[in-house]
Amino acid sequence: MIKEYLKQLKAKGNYSWQDISKASGLPEPTIRKIFSGETADPRFETVVRLVTAMGGSLDKINEIEKNESSEKNDKTDKLEVTEESQMKALIAVKEVYEARIKDLKESSAEHLNSIKRDKKILTVAVALLATFLIGVLTVDLFVGSIGWFRY
Prior knowledge:
Elements: H1 2-13, H2 17-24, H3 28-36, H4 44-53, H5 58-78, H6 83-142
């Protein structure tokens, strides 16, 4: 809800990111993260600086904070977690992780096979090139009228 209030203030004052950054003294990336929701729970001091920079009301922020905390308490009171549901959740998480580990093992095995195959191909290529080079140098040495080595 604070994020929406900040967006309203920004739109109402037609502020740019640079304007807000300059007025609040906060870095522009920090401000963008707060507005986008990437920073889910910004510090109160930071929010106060933003609201003050855009000419908003600190009383409004205080009301929003009180409403959010009472809503969180209501939700927490309504939640009842049993051991059985916790065990089911843990088992589900375990199964997901085991499946992921199996996939990673298969992927790593495929990767190792690919590396071994590439190593064989490179070994053959180097052997062929070395044979060709030795052949060229041998011909060059024995045929004196052509090649690099003349006598």
